[in-house]
Amino acid sequence: MKLPPDRSHVATEQRHEESAALDELGTAELVTLLARDQRRAVAAVEAASESIARFADAVASSLARGGRLVYAGAGTSGRLG
Q1: Angle at which helices 27-47 and 49-64 pack, to 10 degrees?
Q2: How far is CA 13 from CA 7, 9, 26, 48, 60, in A?
Q3: What integer is the mean pLDDT of 23-43?
Q4: Cα dihedral sign, 11-14-19-22
Q5: Which of 7, 28, 41, 59 has CB 3.0 to 4.6 Å from 13, enough for a Cys bridge?
C-alpha cells in the first residue's frame, strides 16, 4: 500500500474543527472541549489496550535479551520519550 507523503491519511494529523476558534471560546466552553477530547483519547487507548500490552511485552522481552528500543518524537512526545 502506497501512502501519501503528507500524512493526510493519519487521523491525528487532521484539522480539529471544534478547535478552530479556541480564542473565541469562553473558559467553561474551552474546559469542556478539552475534557471531551481527553475522554476520546482514553477511549482510543482502551480500545487498543490489548495491542499496546502485546507491544510493551515484546519490547520488554527484547530489552531483557540485550535488545534496544529506538524512539523518535518531536514536541511533547519527544520530551516524554
Answers
A1: 60
A2: 7, 8, 25, 19, 29
A3: 93
A4: positive
A5: 7
Handedness of CA 27, 29, 32, 36 (dihedral sign): negative
DSSP symbol at 22: G
- Confirm if 69 and 59 have CB atoms less than 8 A apart: yes
Q: How far is CA 32 from the centre of its chain?
A: 20
pLDDT value at residue 59? 95
Query: 44: closest CA among 22, 66, 12, 67?
Result: 12
Convert the pLDDT of each residue in 35-63 to its tens digit.
999 999 899 999 999 999 999 999 999 99
**What single DSSP character describes residue 14?**
S
What is the rounded CA–CA span in Å between residue 12 and residue 4?
15
